[in-house]
Design brief:
This protein is α/β, with parallel strands linked by helices and 201 residues long. Helix content is 38%, strand content 17%. The chain has one domain (3-199): 3-Layer(aba) Sandwich (Glycerol-3-phosphate (1)-acyltransferase).
Length: 201
């Protein structure tokens, strides 16, 4: 990991004031998919920077290409955080985001994903999209780890460019897996509930 990434990670932690709680889960360099609620453009970077360094170097946030390639500052940050950019405008059947993620992580990297898709400004999480299900189906060896991010929508409110320093909390819960024969809808509901439950801990 380069020096710039370490500095940016420190800045992200200072701005968010993020505290991290591991609940029935421990930091590990095994391959995982951290899946979290999504309320701010800073979510991926703050969660990534909150992981221990030995885990962080093996973890890639997944983010929208159309947002993170606008302007040199975002492009610079995305490059240094090793962000896996997804082109939401050019999704093809044989080149889906899930196929891209699986190809890019190989047997080395973990991922940070946001199954709601777009940022959610409401009180309740939006329904999860199917990508997490297909990741679990195509790579059943991956640990699927729920994460609840609290207060990030107030650190970087919608429409704002500069973050407002506030305290936020990241709660990381126990790993789960797609069960054999589990229907997509039931799995996505179970995964969404696993994230929601962490809010109340």
């Amino acid at each position: 990991m380069n020096v710039t990434a370490n500095v940016l990670a420190l800045i992200a932690k200072l701005l968010s004031g993020a505290t991290v709680r591991w609940v029935d889960c421990q930091p590990d360099t095994c391959q995982r998919v951290y899946f979290a609620n999504h309320t701010s453009h800073l979510d991926a970077l703050v969660l990534w920077s909150s992981l221990p360094k030995n885990v962080r170097v093996r973890t890639r946030p997944v983010a929208a290409k159309d947002y993170w390639e606008k302007g040199w500052v975002r492009r610079y940050m995305a490059k240094n955080f090793n962000v896996l950019l997804i082109d939401r405008q050019k999704i093809k059947v044989h080149q889906s985001p899930v196929e891209l993620m699986i190809r890019e992580i190989r047997d080395e990297y973990s991922l940070i994903v946001f199954p709601e898709g777009a940022r959610n400004v409401g009180e309740e999480m939006a329904e999860f999209k199917s990508g997490l299900y297909y990741l679990g189906k195509k790579r059943p060896d991956l640990e699927l780890v729920p994460v609840y991010i609290d207060n990030m929508n107030r650190v970087l409110p919608r429409g704002e460019f500069l973050p407002v320093p506030l305290l936020s909390c990241i709660t990381i819960g126990p790993p789960m897996w797609l069960e054999t024969g589990e229907p997509k809808f039931e799995f996505l509901q179970r995964a969404r509930e696993a994230v929601r439950r962490l809010k109340d801990i």
